[in-house]
């Protein structure tokens, strides 16, 4: 990540694309790789932090990166488990040093897709702006 005055202190990184199967990859574009910067970079980074299991990147020196969301894979989406999931999401968001505060957080089971949840969060970034993050996570 490269931080500069042009990104409001929120950084710049390579743009990732979400494939139809839900996997992530670098944008398949010829020539220079596209990047994301500022708020868009922070949103991408927070989504990645949520979908990567905590400790999953330990082999490359990032043992505390990620979230504990994956611990609820296969568990019923009861009120108690949704509350636990909400705590895991809040903790992961707050782990990013560019997040000053989590202003609002909603974790809701999808009605039409058993085992999946919608996560919507509003955070205050270090540049003072509110940033909206939304991601669907399959825990089925």
Provide structural commentary.
The chain has one domain: Nuclear Transport Factor 2, Chain: A (Roll). It is built from two helices and seven strands. The chain is globular, with a radius of gyration of 15 Å. The N terminus is likely disordered. Helix content is 22%, strand content 30%. With 140 residues, it is an alpha+beta fold.
The total count of strands amounts to 7
Query: Helical stretch count?
Result: 2
Strand fraction equals 25-35%
Radius of gyration: 15 Å
The ordered H/E elements are: EEEEHHEEE
Please give the order of strands in the largest beta sheet.
5-6-7
Largest sheet: 3 strands, antiparallel
Q: Give the CA-CA distance, first to last residue.
A: 32 Å
Summed over residues and divided by their number, the pLDDT gives a mean of 85
What general form does the structure show? globular
Please identify, by name, the CATH architecture: Roll
- CATH C-level: Alpha Beta
Unreliable stretches = 1-6
Chain oligomer state: single chain
Q: Kindly state the percentage of residues in helix.
A: 10-25%
* Number of spatially distinct domains: 1
CATH topology: Nuclear Transport Factor 2, Chain: A
What structural class results from the helix and strand content? alpha+beta
Summarize the structure.
This protein is an alpha+beta fold. It contains two helices and seven strands; from the N terminus they run E-E-E-E-H-H-E-E-E.
């Amino acid at each position: 990540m490269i931080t500069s005055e042009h990104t409001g202190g929120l950084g710049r990184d390579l743009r990732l694309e979400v494939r139809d199967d839900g996997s992530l990859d670098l944008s398949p574009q010829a020539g220079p790789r596209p990047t994301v910067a500022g708020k868009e970079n922070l949103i991408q980074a927070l989504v990645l932090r949520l979908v990567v299991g905590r400790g999953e990147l330990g082999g490359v020196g990032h043992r505390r990166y990620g979230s504990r969301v994956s611990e609820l894979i296969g568990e019923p989406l009861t009120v108690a488990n949704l509350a636990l999931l909400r705590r895991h999401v809040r903790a992961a968001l707050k782990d990013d040093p560019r997040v000053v505060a989590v202003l609002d957080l909603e974790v809701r089971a999808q009605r039409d897709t058993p085992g999946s949840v919608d996560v919507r969060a509003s955070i205050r970034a270090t540049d003072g702006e509110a940033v909206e993050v939304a991601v669907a996570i399959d825990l089925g």
